[in-house]
Amino acid sequence: MIETTNQPTLLNLPPLLDSYGLASEWSPASAEQPYEQLLLELGVDANGEVLAARVCWLNELTGSALNQAGQTEAAAALTDATEVWMLDWLVNLERELPAAKQPDLAWFAITWSQHLPFGSLGVDGEGRLYYRYVWMLEEQQVDPVEFLKLAQMTTALLQGALQQLEAWAHSDLDSSIWMAALAEGKQP
Amino acid sequence: MTTSTRSMIAFLQEFLTNLRFQILFAPISENQTFENLMVYLGQSPTDQAWFARVLYLTDVQRSLGQPVPPELELLEVYLPLQIQAETPQLSALATLLGKLNAILPAGHFGYRQSDGVYLRHSFVLAAQDEVWPFAVSETLDIFSLHATVLSQVIADTAAGALSVDQAIRRAEQALGTPTAEIDWSPYWVSEN
Fold first, then answer.
1. HSE of A136, CA atoms in CB hemisphere, 13 A
2. CB-CB under 8 Å, A135 with B177
3. Which residues in chain B have their CB less than 8 angstroms from residue A111's CB?
4. What pLDDT shows up at residue B183?
5. How much is the pTM?
6. What is the model's pLDDT at position B23?
7. Contacts for A22 with CB less than 8 Å, ≥ 6 apart
8. Is the ipTM reported for this complex over the cut 0.95?
9. Cβ–Cβ of B74/A110 closer than 8 Å?
10. Which of B6 and B137 is assigned the larger pLDDT?
11. Which of A32, A84, A160, A145 is nearest to B105 (CA)?
12. B96: distance to nearest CA of chain A, Å?
């Protein structure tokens, strides 16, 4: 198994997040889920829909997946290679879109990502929109204040991205024309 | 450009050079108001040199007169792969990149008209903090690996020679690991 601190490293975050009005729920590593995880409500979009994030250590997640796949040597090699700890932020942005826009959503997500200061939007194999950012850290521990700042910045950039998504989704323009207009500094 | 970002670029140049990266340093000049590093990461399948650019995005924003939050610095590592796609292939390309981005350990693929497919990662830093240099070298190593093992699959998809499913299977073989679907099941939404 991948070696970790074996100590909860995200457990101390919920009280601080709560004091800033961000609901969160921490869960420890277990047999079913061999990595600790923080589920976090970053805020809401313009339609009042929750921006729900899952935060966990990518090193643990990958090690767990390799072990489950029976690739214990690869998991052990990962342990040896671990010099950087990666905190994986994944935000579920699944939204109802007009049917005509759904095939164009992956392109919208990939090209809009160039306007994000950090992280990227994408569409998974089920057609669901997500946002992901990997925060690289020297040790497997998190400064709560830095975490809170990152959460607040992520909320702001996602609210902006979802505003664009909403405007594009209810326009009659395809994403290429929409993005070309933005590149010229015009709001379509 | 702030004093701290300027000294940090110089420090990164020295640090990465000591790790045997080949680096070009672009200083401030008449045509450029910010410093950056160009790090050589190998050759593409079409024998083009891959150069990753390392710079403070916040320096660029300042040089353009754009507002930058005083408490924030963004250090960007950006590698253009020069893979262009024709319009009919854009959707398939975006679908492939979206699936890959869900599993990559650091950075993400994107697409810009000018550069085609690129790899990018931004380090979000408090203004008083220095970037941890090992994280930058790790990112460069990861970019080099992903460019080497995935660029041909991406180029073939962009050219319409591979379907998304075929490309995913090739990517799995190249990475030696399944591109697991995102598991949304643990997502928790408050009743409030």
1. 23
2. no
3. 94, 110-112
4. 47
5. 0.89
6. 95
7. A40, A41, A42, A43, A148, A151
8. no
9. no
10. B137
11. A84
12. 9
